[in-house]
Automatic annotation (TrEMBL):
GO terms for molecular function: ATP binding; dTMP kinase activity; nucleoside diphosphate kinase activity; nucleoside monophosphate kinase activity. It comes from Cuculus canorus (Common cuckoo). One of its GO terms (cellular component) is mitochondrion. The keyword Oxidoreductase does not apply. InterPro entries: P-loop_NTPase, Thymidylate_kin-like_dom, UMP-CMP_kinase_2. PANTHER family: THYMIDYLATE KINASE (PTHR10344), UMP-CMP KINASE 2, MITOCHONDRIAL (PTHR10344:SF4). GO terms for biological process: dTDP biosynthetic process; dTTP biosynthetic process; dUDP biosynthetic process. The keyword Nucleotide-binding applies. Pfam families: Thymidylate_kin. Gene3D superfamilies: P-loop containing nucleotide triphosphate hydrolases. This is Thymidylate kinase-like domain-containing protein. Residues 33-148 form the Thymidylate kinase-like domain.
Length: 149
């Protein structure tokens, strides 16, 4: 709906439409590094990439990363849609790369879920969604990593 006033939204949707549904990973391991900003995720991910001769991918993926500032300045629902689309685009990149080498990822679905939860609560633990809420459930159609650290 926002494509009418955010021209970059159409480009993101075009990239998303090119992604195959239910991507399957290749034979190499896929490892995700998650954590707070400035805690060393990128440093560790780069080191592991170098050690394993792996592919390093980031969320949001490089193809939409330049538009991040535009979407970060939008209402929460549009911002969430941008990052969710980024996860599916990234999954497509993971599927391709994992057929050739191990894949190391600097953030993925967990960061998107954490942001969603953080923007839904009023800073009180008792305001968190209940334990079995859908926000905690891995999307069935999103490629899963082998390990998350």
């Amino acid at each position: 709906q926002c494509a009418a006033w955010i021209s970059e939204a159409r480009a993101v949707l075009d990239l998303l439409e090119k992604c195959p549904e239910h991507q399957k990973k290749g034979g190499f391991p896929v490892v995700v590094f998650e954590g707070l900003d400035a805690t060393g995720k990128t440093t560790v991910a780069t080191s592991v990439r170098d050690t394993l001769n792996a592919v390093l991918l980031r969320s949001p993926p490089a193809c939409i990363s330049p538009w991040r500032a535009i979407f970060d300045d939008q209402p929460t629902s549009i911002k969430r849609a941008f990052y969710a689309a980024g996860n599916y685009i990234l999954a497509s990149e993971i599927a391709r790369a994992s057929t050739q080498a191990p894949v190391i990822i600097d953030r993925y679905w967990h960061s998107t879920a954490a942001y969603t939860i953080a923007t839904e609560v009023n800073s009180k633990v008792q305001d968190l969604p209940p334990a079995h809420d859908d926000v905690y459930q891995w999307p069935e159609d999103l490629l899963k990593p082998d390990l998350v650290l």
